Structures are given as structure tokens and as C-alpha cells.
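lol ok so funny story. i was supposed to be doing the assay writeup but got distracted and ended up predicting the structure for this chain instead. priorities right. anyway since i did it might as well share w the group, maybe its usefull for someone
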Amino acid sequence: MYESDTSKNRMKTGINGLDNMLNGGVPLNNQVVIAGGPGAGKTLLCFEVAYKNAKLGTPSIFISFEEDSKYLLDNIKEAFSDFNDIDKLIADKMLVIGGRDPGIMIENSNTADKYTFGKVMSEIEKLIVDNKSKFVVIDSISLLGLLLENDLDYRRSMVTMSSNLKKLNVTAFLIMEMTIADRDHMRYSPEFFIFDGIITLYMQGENDKRALNLEIFKMRGTNHSRAVSPYEITGGGMRVFTIES
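and the output, tada:
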């Protein structure tokens, strides 16, 4: 059992059970990687956090390089059928959906270079400043890695991203694809060392018996649960099953 520590300023995720595991929420201005395989619910988790914080009056941005914004919203509304005020939050500019077409972005990068990555980062930073956002989701940093020629450039660019987001005083969730979604065979990538937090979503089992489990692998600035906890995705949002909750 982790010790209680709620003295630091935190941002609640609003997800049932997850804030208990985080001992009250994510420390403000932390950058948290949400890692997992396809179908684990990474995008849904991050959108729910943006949605819940927008409802509480925190300007939030969801930047997608994976899907067209309309297609993204259609899928989210279908999954979270109880979230009936998404359009109002968007109209009120409390929740902003931004991004670029991934195919065009990669095609225009030619051989993929640091200049293109820097241009994308400048657009992200401008969106944050223009909307006075305090929470941002980037979906995904894995796709941004395709704009860079080698692993060293990618690591350097991730360090720069981390530094720039901290200067903007935003809390950020950064989605990352894991090629191996099984906890027992997980490999550590550079993101595990660069960013403040890692929350991993595992799909374990086979065929129709796959189980969804969540683990807070790392979170700077706070005590947190070390348990691997099952979760489910419902029309009313995600729910993490923990002893604490």
C-alpha cells in the first residue's frame, strides 16, 4: 500500500479508480506517456481526461495525428454515449480538437527530418498558447517519430518536447504505441526515461478472453499504487477496479 500524499498540486483525471491509484491525481505540469497496444483504449482514456477537465473549467486540447477530427469524435461519441455535452464544450472552446492529416504530414516530410518535426511542435505550442490550455493530449508521439531519421534524433526531439511543454506550464498526456502489449515481454523505450510518468495499458490473454489491465509504471512527484488493476470501458467512461476505490 502506498502512503497518502496529497500536499502537491494535482490535476484529477476524473477516471473512476485511476485518481485513487495516483493518490489524488497527476502532479501539475507532469508529462505522462499513455502506452499500450491497439485496442487497449489509449485514445479513449486521454480523451476522457481532457473532457472531464474541460467540464471543470480547465481549457484542454486534444491533438490527433492518428485520425481526422470528425472521425475521432464520431468514434469517441459512440464509445462514450453518456458524454452528451462534447459539442457544447467544443463550441465554448473549453475543449479544442486539433491536428494534421497523418498521410499528408508524412508525405510532405520527404525523407522525414528534424525541420518538419520542429514545425509540428511549433503548431502544437501555438495551439496551446492561443487557447490558454492547461491540459494537452498528443496522439501520438509514435507517429511523430516517423518524421525523424534515426533513434538519436527521436530521443533529442522528445527531450526538447518535454522541455517546451514544461515551459508552457501544461500537464500533458502523450500516447505511445507499444509493439508488445504483454507485460511479461515489455521492452523499455526512450520515453520511459525522458517523461515524468508512464501509464501502461495491457491486453492479456487470447482471442475473446483478453483482459484489460492498467499499471502506473512511473510517476514523478508523487507516491502511487504499484498494483496492476483491471479496467473496463463503458458508455459513461472508463472504470479502473482497485482496492482503494
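The radius of gyration is 17 Å. DSSP finds nine helices and eleven strands in the chain.
back to the writeup now i swear
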